[in-house]
Protein: Ubiquitin 3 binding protein But2 C-terminal domain-containing protein
Organism: Viridothelium virens
Amino acid sequence: MKNLALISILLATIPTLTTPFKMGNCDTSCPTNGTLPDSALSPSLIIPISAQQPTRAFGNTTLAKVTPSDFCTIFNLEIPPSAINKTCLLAFLFPTHEQTTAFYSFAGPGDFVFNGYAYGAGANPGTTYETQPASGPSPPAAKLVPGNAYVLNVGSCGVQPGQTEAVTVSGALCSNDTYFEFEQTREKGCPIGFYVAIS
Ligand SMILES: *[C@@H]1O[C@H](CO)[C@@H](O)[C@H](O)[C@H]1NC(C)=O
Ligand SMILES: *[C@@H]1O[C@H](CO)[C@@H](O)[C@H](O)[C@H]1NC(C)=O
Ligand SMILES: *[C@@H]1O[C@H](CO)[C@@H](O)[C@H](O)[C@H]1NC(C)=O
Ligand SMILES: *[C@@H]1O[C@H](CO)[C@@H](O)[C@H](O)[C@H]1NC(C)=O
């Protein structure tokens, strides 16, 4: 009986011991305007390209890479027909390491350009530096540094009446002075990367 009582005490203790520690109220805030409505669009395709390896296809990835005079990364976003007559806001969200657990590595002053491609043209998994889509309008160059959220463009979503399929908008992030690798995700704390909010 004594043993049984001891066992039942031990058993009763186990759930307490295995309950994970609560993380406390971990409410590190995101950069100003660095959160998103659930409806915001994430990229449908992320393709690094390399000027030094112009015929190599790196394929779809969640890890974007930008290096001076070599890597740029193309982001496709699919604007749905339901965005007709609506405003599209393109943002680049860039939390600090304290605000996201997503991997990123950033070194340099942070001067970036976003080379836009023609409306409706986008990368595919086989796209290389040499086979980039036709160029199109680009938002202005921007300085991107951690701890901020950047609105790169706000305007009509451009959906035409009668359009029944999503339209691809696409561009490549490049820099001549900064090394930047990051995991595009909204699931590791504050979101990081490119997003389009429709309103
Ligand atoms: C945040 O977003 C709102 C609405 O788009 C804008 O009015 C405001 O200027 C933004 N704040 C900053 C610091 O960018
Ligand atoms: C590219 O990867 C993203 C994220 O993993 C995924 O959602 C998307 O379907 C992929 N696209 C293609 C064309 O493989
Ligand atoms: C979009 O705007 C046009 C022109 O103002 C209008 O004729 C059309 O009904 C609108 N479509 C929708 C779905 O709101
Ligand atoms: C990088 O430098 C090259 C050569 O000067 C120039 O053609 C290119 O536009 C620059 N790219 C960026 C992203 O500033």
